[in-house]
Each structure stands twice: as C-alpha cells, then as structure tokens.
Amino acid sequence: MLINKLKNKSLIKMKRNDIIILITRKLPEKIEKKLKENFNVIFNKTDKRLSYPELKKKISNVNILIPCVSDTIDASIIKSAKKLKLIANFGNGVDNLDLVTAREENVIVTNTPDVLTEDTADLVLTLVLMISRKVVDAQKRIIGGQWSGWGPSETLGERIRGKTFGIIGMGRIGKAVAKRLDILGVKIFYHNRNRLKINEEKILKAKYFENLDLMIPQCDIISLHCPYTPDTFHLLSKKRLKLLKKNCIVINTSRGEIIDEQALASLLFKKKIGGAGLDVFEHEPQITQKLLESDNVILLPHISSATIESRIDMGERVIKNIMSYASGKTPPDIIKKLHYEQT
Ligand code: 8YV
Q1: What is the Å distance from ligand 1's center to 138 Cα?
Q2: Residues 253-287: pLDDT tens digits?
Q3: pLDDT digits (tens, 9 = 90+) for 204-246
Q4: Where are the domains of the chain?
Q5: Residue of 191, 254, 198, 244 whose CA lies nearest to 221
Q6: 228 Cβ closer than 6 Å to some ligand 1 atom
Q7: To test ligand 1's pocket by mutation, which of 69, 118, 278 has the most ligand atoms within 8 angstroms of CB?
Q8: Under CATH, what is the fold of the domain 2-115+307-326?
Q9: Cβ-based burial of 266 (10 A; exposed 0-12, middle 13-18, buried ≥19)
C-alpha cells in the first residue's frame, strides 16, 4: 500500500529541473552542488535558521524539503505546503517532524541512518573520559594560572576500568558505544524495548535489564541512545534520577527531552551525582541555568555528528533518498513507523 501511494505521489512525471527543493540550512558545498546540478534548489546562503513565518512562506511551492534538527516541521507547515511530496531529513532523528500529519498528507519522510553512528559513539567516549578524569577542571587550573606544580591530591578523577556502564537504547549507536567499551574494561548493562539475540549480547558482552529501575542504581555511568518519542519523553524523570548512584556520570548525545533537565541540573548543582556530559538539551539552544553553574559537567552544542565526513555522508544519503524518489523508486531510508524506533 505504501508503495502504491508512493508511486501515485512520485515526482517521476516532472522534469528534474522543475522539481523545487528547499534546503533550510547551509550544507557541504559538494552536496549543494550535486543537488543544484539536478534540481531547482532554494538555498539558505546565510545558514541562519529560518523563522517559522519565513519557513512557511518559502515552503509553499516546494516539492521536496531538506530540513535539519533545528527546524520544527509541524502540522501547519506540512499542510501549507500543498506541493510537498518528500521530506528528506538531513539527520537521523525525526522527532522534529510531525510524522502523523506527513502520513495523512501523503508526504514521504526519509532520514540518514548509519552514517553518523561512529562519530556519535566517539563523542560518548570523549565525554566519559573527560568527565571521569576531570580534564576540563585540570585545564582550567593551567589556563587560570593556578598550577604551582604536581601534587598528590590535585584533580583526582575516577578510574573507568571495572566500573558498570549502562546503555539505555541498544540500537545502532548504543551498539557502537558498547563495542568501544570493551577496550575500557567496563561491565556493560543495557536496557532496550527488545532484548538482543543472545549471540549478539555475548559479542557485545552486555547484560540485559528489562526493568530500567533495577539497572539504574547499579550503574556508574549511564548513556542514552534511544530516540525521542512520546514514550521516551522524560524517561529519566525526576523520580528515576533519584535512583542514580552518588558517583554516577550521565551522558546524553541523543535528545534533551529524554531527561528531565531541571531535575538533572538540580542534582548536579547539589553534587548529588558524579557529573554529566550533555550534547543535547531539552529546549535547545536554551540551557537550564543551574547546568551552566555546575562545575562537574561538560556541555556541548549538539556536535555528536559534527565531522566533515559525517556531514558529507549525511548529504549523500539525502541525495540518494531524493534520487530514488524522483525516479519512482522507494527511497532506502523511508520512515515507515510513526514513532521512529531506531537510533
Ligand atoms: C545531526 C542528530 O547533526 O541526526 C541526528 O539525529 O541529532 C544530529 O547529530 C542533526 O540531526 C542534523 O540535522
């Protein structure tokens, strides 16, 4: 049925140059060039985020939209884009898009899975090691001119080896993190909607917990790798956060909405947990003040996939989805489920 709808709505009858594409942000030059060679593209040369009214105005004649995580594509935007056939999201998570309305309006949605997995997993490790060894504090002592020489009790971090690492969400990124953890010698626990096959658990050396509340109090480090859906909103709620060990480090490179940011900030500020490495926030780009005032945190501006390679691969994936669709084929990364279920 999906394929029939797809064929009906495909752009196959249109000449490539007549197909209008709107790219909401500035993408790598190579990607923009390839799109321009084939289609009629509206670029955003300034890279400034389009305001809601600007987006609504620009989208009215558009056939294909390429949005990013910084754009909220809600029901009203989708409904006002009468000629829209495809939303080719430049990114993995699709929580910024109203999938239900897109489905109702017969607009196909695609994303860019796989290509940012490894870079995101690298950032998770970076955060864990930097926090546990207090790297930022240590550097501050040098830059702030407070270092008067080595001392046995200066900037004492915590050893990672032997600790317990809890992964919440064992999709692509969760697994890429687990693979890297072997080298650190930690015990791996995980929680996921579905348990992995026993063989895969063995390879990853990961122990499954169906009950998140039983896993959390046993972890020294917790890293989130589930998508943001109505089911995962505040998965780490105020109540659950109280289950964290006193030395626990929380890492979030997934979506800010999965943690009750106010509650986490309060625990960090009062030093009731070990620390946090956050690359995403509940109301980006706003950040809870108490987080900014906590000294056991690393706060990053959503850079988990920010490598040149990743951005180009994401762009190529967007092009692949568009090209397939424009030639009447099913795009490889079509979102079939209304609540996106993979990371
Ligand atoms: C991307 C991300 O950079 O892909 C995702 O879901 O969160 C980011 O790492 C962003 O989505 C680009 O739109």
Answers
A1: 30
A2: 999 999 999 999 999 999 999 999 999 999 999 99
A3: 999 999 999 999 999 999 999 999 999 999 999 999 999 999 9
A4: 2-115+307-326, 117-145+156-299
A5: 244
A6: no
A7: 69
A8: Rossmann fold (3.40.50)
A9: middle
